[in-house]
Amino acid sequence: MPRVVHFEIPCAEPERAAKFYAEVFGWKINKWDGPEEYWLASTGEAGQPGIDGGLMRLTDMFPTTVNTIDVPSVDDFVAAIKAHGGTILIPKFALPGVGYLAYFKDPEGNTLGIMQADPTAR
Do residues 5 and 26 lie in contact, with contact meaning Cβ atoms separated by under 8 Å? Predict the structure, then answer.
C-alpha cells in the first residue's frame, strides 16, 4: 500500500526556515547539491517512526506543505489520479539518482506528490 514517505515545506527564506527547524526541533538540514534549490531535512534517526523531508522555495504552485506518497509506478498512479477527479500539476519527471516524481491536486484542492524510487533515473 502506498505510504507518505516525504514532506516538503515551502519557505520564502529557506535558510531562515532551516535555522528555525534545526534550533527548535534539532533537525539536521543540509542544502542539496542537486539541480534544484532544495534543503534536505533529517528529522530523526533511522529506524525511528517518522519521515524526513525538505525545504523548498515558496511558489504560487506550492503555497503550503506538500506530502509525497511512494508508489510503484508514477505512470499508473497519474492515470488513477486523473480517473478519480484529481489534476496533474507537474507531470512525471526524473530526479536523477532518486526516481520519478509528479505533483497533483486531489479533488479537495490539496497538493501532493507521488514518487517512484529508481536510483537509475536520469
Answer: no
Last residue of a domain, one of 34, 59, 84: 59
The answer to whether 68 and 101 have CB atoms below 8 angstroms apart is yes
Confidence of residue 36 (pLDDT cuts 50, 70, 90): confident
The count of structural domains within the chain is 2
Q: Is 66 within the bounds of a domain?
A: no
> Which of the 8 DSSP states describes residue 60?
S
Is residue 85 domain-shared with residue 115, that is, in the same domain?
yes
For the segment 28-50, the average pLDDT, to the nearest whole number, is: 93
One domain, residues 53 and 6: yes
Query: What's the predicted TM-score (pTM) here?
Result: 0.86
Sort 67 into a burial class: Cβ within 10 Å, 0-12 / 13-18 / 19+: middle
pLDDT tens readout for residues 75-114:
999 999 999 999 999 999 999 999 999 999 999 899 999 9
